[in-house]
Amino acid sequence: MADKAYSSRRCYELATELQAIAFILFKKNATGKSFGSSTWSKMYSYFMLHREEFMKHYHQRSNIESTFSMIKKKFGPYVRSRDITAQKNEVLLKILCHNICVVNQEMHELGIQADFKTHE
């Protein structure tokens, strides 16, 4: 899922190469002309004929954007590590901490008593 800025035949072809299905919103001036991109014409047809179903897939992006926003607000928008491996680990740690915070919040809001002991 991506916004209109990524609406290009190349992006659709790249998704196909990666064995994925791209749900990228089409710009107003987009047409079904493929110019060599069969994926573009297929997805444009799907968009035009099954717009409601297409938009259900596309709007999952809202959940992703909300999650990124929550992580940035709570833990800051920057990655401070210099090494690429350390940067990846820092981002993964922020995601883990976010998930722990969400579980903790839901436990308190819903009155759930969690038992994190190992059961044999």
Automatic annotation (TrEMBL):
<dbReference type="GO" id="GO:0003677">
    <property type="term" value="F:DNA binding"/>
</dbReference>
<dbReference type="Pfam" id="PF01609">
    <property type="entry name" value="DDE_Tnp_1"/>
</dbReference>
<dbReference type="InterPro" id="IPR002559">
    <property type="entry name" value="Transposase_11"/>
</dbReference>
<dbReference type="GO" id="GO:0006313">
    <property type="term" value="P:DNA transposition"/>
</dbReference>
<dbReference type="GO" id="GO:0004803">
    <property type="term" value="F:transposase activity"/>
</dbReference>
<protein>
    <submittedName>
        <fullName>Putative transposase, IS4 family protein</fullName>
    </submittedName>
</protein>
<feature type="domain" description="Transposase IS4-like">
    <location>
        <begin position="2"/>
        <end position="100"/>
    </location>
</feature>
